[in-house]
Amino acid sequence: AYWSDSLIVLTHFKGHGLTGFGGTIKNVGMGLTDKIGKCKMHTDTGPIVEEERCQGCGLCLKWCASEAINLYNEVVKIDQAKCVGCGQCLVSCSNKAIRIDWNAVSSRVVQERICEAALAVLKERKALFLNFLMDVTPDCDCCPHSDAPIVPDIGILASRDPVAIDQAGVDLVNSTAGLKDTALKINLESGEDKFRGLHPQVSWEIQLEYAEAIGLGSREYELIALRENVV
């Protein structure tokens, strides 16, 4: 195991289908959590086997440290009582016969769990956060595709407060006029909510409100612009 008493967190600021936007809080809470933590943030159910895809190779059995997987009639079965949600079966199955129901919990629950994980990661650690408001894409970077930026490049934010830097990021993106002919079809005007325009079913405010409530940081900030002197 490795331990560091300080962190420098670099984050690509973008939209997200489950949390509205992805910034520092999500990067820390999700990115610095192990596979078990990631699964628990996304769902309350265990891995699901799609039997028609299963080839009965048994590879997932070898990777299951909790011995929760057995092979019956050339199809694997998962004992949810033994499963610890480590996710090894998901990544070891080349046939993609095992999946997680990512919609098993609400967006609110996922956002709150991410904030709690971030609080645990940052406890007793010094940290500097950098949000890159450049190539602000509509969806998470973990998607197997990318898309055109929804706003022009804005710049880079730096802060020691993970909540303040995300609030500032949202405010700056929303205050910027959206780019036409992108995934952003509504709320293109300056001052309109770009993330609601992308994902109208998601209330992105939840993660900032909850993060502030549990003591992760403050939504209040002072924006200090730094410009290089031109000689």
Topology diagram in text:
Elements: E1 6-12, E2 14-16, E3 20-22, H1 24-31, H2 35-42, E4 48-49, H3 59-63, E5 69-72, E6 75-78, H4 88-92, E7 98-99, H5 107-122, E8 126-133, E9 155-159, H6 162-175, H7 194-198, H8 205-213
Parallel strand pairs: 1-8
Antiparallel strand pairs: 2-3, 4-7, 5-6, 8-9
Structure, described:
It is a single chain. This protein is of the alpha+beta class and 231 residues long. 30% of the residues lie in helices and 16% in strands. It is built from 8 helices and 9 strands. The chain has helices at residues 24-31, 35-42, 59-63, 88-92, 107-122, 162-175, 194-198, 205-213, and strands at 6-12, 14-16, 20-22, 48-49, 69-72, 75-78, 98-99, 126-133, 155-159. The strands form 4 sheets. It has a 3-stranded mixed sheet, with helices on one face. It has a two-stranded antiparallel ribbon with strand order 2-3. Helix 1 packs across helix 5 (107-122). The longest helix has 16 residues, at 107-122. It is globular, with a radius of gyration of 20 Å.
